[in-house]
Amino acid sequence: MILHVDGNSFYASCEQIYRPDLRGKPVAVLSNNDGVIIALNREAKEAGLKRGDVYFKVAHECASRGVTVFSSNYTLYADISRRITSIYREYAPEIEEYSIDESFLFFDGCSWPRREFVDMGHEIKRRIMKEVGMPVCVGAAPTKTLSKLYNKRAKEHGGVFVYDEAGVDALLESTPAGDIWGIGPSRAEMLLHLGIRNAKQLRDMPLYDAKKKMTIQGYATVQELRGIQCLDRVVRNSRECVTSSRQFSQRVYDIPTLESAIVQYTQIAVERLRAQHSEAKALILYLSTCNYYANDPDQQYTNSVYVELVRETSYTADFVKAAAAGLRRIYRDGYGYKTVIVTLCKITPAAMQGNLFIDPLEDVKKRAVMQAVDRVTRSYGRESLSLAKGAAAGDAWQMSRQFLSPCWTTDICAVPGVV
């Protein structure tokens, strides 16, 4: 059996954990630079808002309908996700973290009766609500595709819905084929032309036709609906490239301010590199005005540069120096820049790299410095230690996050007090 656990309105629910006054009230979360609505709870949907709404167009509507708006607080969301995952690990021998708000829990070889999984689902749901404050739904079925479907219907069954062979036909028959995981709008339209309207008809589709018309992925989906596991578990290996990027809240015209942003973005990328125990030998720096629709071509400028280091490393200062050199190669005066992207590439597992012209003690010292920096930033936040240039040019390039909530769980100064 496979359990699929999903946080309800995850981003909005994270914001409500430390704001009990907002429980039962409409909440919406905005994208970077407070651009569009990316998440909202049930009450906000009932107020007429929807995902993708441009905020400045619906700001008056949000105010008039009592919708509380938050800027994206990814530090908070990631920490709440980690807390929830730690609870999953007490139950399942193997876990796949599918996204920040949903996970698969695998119970291979467990021949427990259905009642056991129902009770476990309710226990997980109660614990996460009590210990973290996050409402979740649990679906359980023999395959990942079916468990996603059962999770989707869990709200109709008190938040926990477990596979029952006697009722699966009726469930699939009442489910549109387009609602099945892996069947997008284009495939749903193609299936409709074939007379396949619901998930039961999709399940009963001949395998030969499924593979021919929907490739191997469609073949796997049909098999999964039949209770046969075909989708592999996703193992999060080290990434082949590590990227850090933001879009500025206002245009930047000078090198010192751009360099300030690049220093911070590079620090974030190298921190992620060390977190996966890797090193890199090169970086790509991308710079753009993001002014693609300007009538005057002279207002548009986009360029990138590839910079290779002497050898593999995870030492932040080496990458910052390389990025700053790359910036001077592609910077053009007179343009208002909106986006910078730093990508580390040529990544390999971390190892002591021998070099004829470099004292090996230098590597030892650099690793010790980075370990100390990582310990401090994990305890006191990323802003607690930074290269001097990262703060030298002010915050003109920072994202606009007018409605940012405190990092309640990771910033000691933001820990709520009890009066």
What is the domain total for the residues?
Answer: 3
**CATH fold type of the largest domain:** Dna Ligase, domain 1
Give the helix proportion (percent range): 25-40%
Oligomer: single chain
- Low-confidence runs: none
Radius of gyration using CA atoms only: 25 Å
Q: What is the CATH first-level class name of the largest domain?
A: Alpha Beta
Count of β-strands: 12
**Estimated share of beta-strand residues:** 15-25%
Total count of helical runs of at least 4 residues: 13
* Broad shape: globular
Order of SSEs, N→C? EHEEHHEHEEHEHEHHHHEHEEHEH
Q: In CATH terms, what is the architecture of the largest domain?
A: 2-Layer Sandwich
What this model shows, in words?
- With 419 residues, the protein is α+β, with helices and mostly antiparallel strands.
- The chain has 3 domains: 69 residues, MutS, DNA mismatch repair protein, domain I; 145 residues, 2-Layer Sandwich (Alpha-Beta Plaits); 150 residues, 2-Layer Sandwich (Dna Ligase, domain 1).
- The protein is 38% helix and 20% strand.
- The chain contains 13 helices and 12 strands.
- The chain has a 5-stranded mixed sheet with strand order 5-6-1-7-8. A 4-stranded antiparallel sheet has the order 9-12-10-11, covered by helices on one side.
- Strand 5 and strand 6 form a beta hairpin.
- Helix 11 packs antiparallel against helix 12.
- The mean pLDDT is 87.
